[in-house]
Amino acid sequence: MSSAALDGTMPSDPDLAARGARQQQRSRQLLDAAARVMEREGSQAVSMQAVAAEAEVSVGLIYRYFGGKHELLLAVILNVLEDFATTVPAAVEAVGDDPVDRLVAAFRAYCEVIDRHRHATVLTYRESKSLDEAGRARIKQLEVETTQPLVQVLREGIDAGALRPVDPEMVAYNLLLVAHAWALKHWYFERTLGFEDYVRNQVSLALHGLVEPRQRRRYARLLSAS
Prior knowledge:
Layout: H1 3-7, H2 14-41, H3 48-55, H4 59-65, H5 69-94, H6 99-116, H7 118-127, H8 133-159, H9 168-184, H10 186-189, H11 195-210, H12 220-223
């Protein structure tokens, strides 16, 4: 797959830019289709023909982007991690300097990425073991990297006296698992909660354990689940 299709960068020439945009859109279509069909049937049982049928394209088109099924599986997982890498830092910077607002923005951004890639998230848990050692190592490294914005805002909140002196790494991974749960247990949560309800309730639960007691009045709007 071209680097433009993976990282979203576009050439300066208008014709090349349009072609790059089409390739990026097509790549996203294929990745979404692969995630859906692999989640339903398992990556080992899925053929490229099944993915092509799901995406309503030819098998030959898929091979123009991906060399085979394992490469496609890896690309599906990496696509989620790459979305984290761009979405979360942008969300944090957009809300200003308040450390708790930045923490909430980071968590919400993680949840938004998970919501966009629910099938791929479930697939990651089920099928990443099917990848080779290099693929698994790459995923682990990217996961660590994409968690760092959350770790950083937790450290900022602790240093500012807004958050209790917790272990930022542990809390960051706890929050990431809560975000993942929107996909992993979506069949259950969707019966009573919409996405906004889920995020608001989880933010309230997390902040009740994280915000310094003397700061709770300041952040009452976030501590309330209503």
